[in-house]
Design brief:
β1, α1 and β2 form a beta-alpha-beta unit. 53% of the residues lie in helices and 13% in strands. 38% of the residues are buried. The mean pLDDT is 87. Strands 2-1-3-4-5 form a five-stranded parallel β-sheet, sandwiched between helices. It has 213 residues and is of the alpha/beta class. The chain has two domains: 133 residues, Response regulator (Rossmann fold, 3-Layer(aba) Sandwich); 63 residues, Arc Repressor Mutant, subunit A (Orthogonal Bundle).
Length: 213
């Protein structure tokens, strides 16, 4: 039986090398390449044609989600599994939308990761139960055609309270950089140019209500 060819893409050398050792140690997988960022992952996917690409969601330059989109366009037969430290609904939702077959957290058991990779190699989607739950929550949080994730909606509500990024980060227990990314997404999805316009538009469309936020 031929081995499953895997490309590992992660900007942390220790993580990449650890994955290589674990995957090849099973005897089922052959790691055909390693990528430092999304751009390199795309290039190697086109060159090596792996069965499965194991990719981090946050990397320098071209991030994991955009890399997934481009890989699926250029190498449609290659299946993608996200291996991430983040379990936020929007990352899971966007990864699956981009074309990923699976999403696994870095602190998961090895066998769980292997099961997801095996399923992806067969062209099947497999999500661990807690990740599937997060995905359902994300989909159910879509608001009035603007496709806001649950977290983006929470950020929007806190913006309506007049909170700045630092205050929102503290309230939601996430980084200020993550808040900034959410704000950018909210502004883009609402088709406006500023935080103030986003809140005004949300109130106008009754996405939020001041009495409730």
């Amino acid at each position: 039986m031929s081995k499953i060819k895997v490309l590992v893409a992660d900007d942390h050398l220790v993580v990449r090398e650890g994955l290589v050792v674990m995957l090849q140690g099973t005897g089922e997988f052959e790691v055909v390449g390693q990528a430092f960022d999304g751009h390199e992952a795309i290039q190697l996917a086109e060159k090596l044609h792996p069965d499965v690409i194991l990719i981090d969601v946050q990397m320098p330059g071209i991030g994991g989600i955009e890399a997934i989109r481009q890989i699926k366009k250029r190498v449609p037969k290659a299946q993608v599994v996200v291996l991430s430290s983040f379990d936020q609904e929007e990352y899971i939702y966007q990864s699956i939308q981009a074309g990923a077959k699976g999403y696994v957290l870095k602190d998961s058991e090895l066998e769980e990761l292997l099961d997801v990779i095996r399923a992806a190699a067969r062209g099947e989607s497999l999500l661990p139960a807690h990740i599937a739950t997060k995905l359902v929550e994300s989909v159910s949080a879509v608001k009035r055609g603007h496709d806001l994730t649950k977290r983006e909606y929470e950020v929007l509500c806190l913006m309506a309270r007049g909170m700045r990024n630092r205050e929102i980060a503290k309230r939601l227990n996430i980084t200020e950089r993550t808040v900034k990314n959410h704000v950018t997404q909210v502004i883009a999805k609402l088709g406006v140019k500023s935080r103030t316009e986003a809140v005004t538009q949300a109130l106008k469309e009754k996405l939020i209500c001041l009495e409730k936020v």
